[in-house]
Specification:
The chain has 193 residues and is α+β, with helices and mostly antiparallel strands. 22% of the residues lie in helices and 34% in strands. The chain has helices at 3-22, 170-192; strands at residues 28-32, 46-49, 52-56, 65-66, 71-74, 82-86, 93-101, 104-108, 113-116, 120-126, 136-140, 154-164. Residues 1-27 form the signal peptide.
Length: 193
């Protein structure tokens, strides 16, 4: 094998490694099931599951409302809105959720909104593309009718489905570096000739 042939084979191998390093990683689907949230008591401070947190943004004593294995919210008073976000602060795609109850509104940090109007039986809702690459989702229930009448609406959410993009593996980054170094070396040698 000549030196030129050996160099060409090395370059091909490095380019293949470069291509593997640049190959897109598949998104990971994460579902928040709220299993056993009720064991924390009826008003937990927050909920953490599968790399996500749910917190209340109510400034006067924030708390969540726990069902047995679901998250509950009501209008009028209390703890709303609830915020869903990743623990690491990175973005995610809000894909779908199971819901039943009254009027609800979901708002993302990007300004996307999704509303559920009227009493809903248990159903799965699929989110529009505007809820991709968001860093948080706020869920609240608007107050219906006359605010002097204590007649709150209730909503219950479960199976909050998200997609998250995995971080690049260190090995992929190293292979990318090797591929680039090989291409630069080949270009340098070609210019010398």
């Amino acid at each position: 094998m000549t030196q030129s042939s050996w160099i060409q084979r090395c370059i091909v191998a490095l380019c293949c490694a470069f291509g593997m390093a640049c190959a897109p990683a598949f998104a990971q689907t994460v579902t928040l099931t709220f299993d056993n949230i009720g064991k924390l008591g009826p008003y937990p401070d927050s909920w953490t599951e599968s790399g996500f947190s749910v917190t209340s943004l109510e400034p006067n004593g924030p708390h969540l409302h726990a069902g047995a294995d679901s998250l509950v919210l009501h209008s009028r008073e209390g703890s709303q809105p609830y915020r869903f976000q990743r623990l690491d602060g990175e973005s995610f795609d809000f894909v779908a959720f199971d819901y039943f109850g009254g009027d609800s509104v979901f708002v993302s940090d990007t300004g996307a909104t999704f509303s559920i109007l009227g009493d809903q039986p248990l159903a799965t809702f699929t989110m529009p593309a505007a809820f991709q690459h968001v860093t948080y989702i706020d869920w609240f229930m608007p107050n219906p009718g006359d605010l002097s009448t204590p007649d709150p609406q209730w909503g219950e959410i479960d199976n909050f489905v998200t997609n998250i993009s995995p971080a690049p593996e260190p090995g992929q980054v190293a292979m990318l570096g090797l591929g680039l170094a090989g291409l630069l070396l080949h270009g340098r040698r070609a210019r010398r000739r």
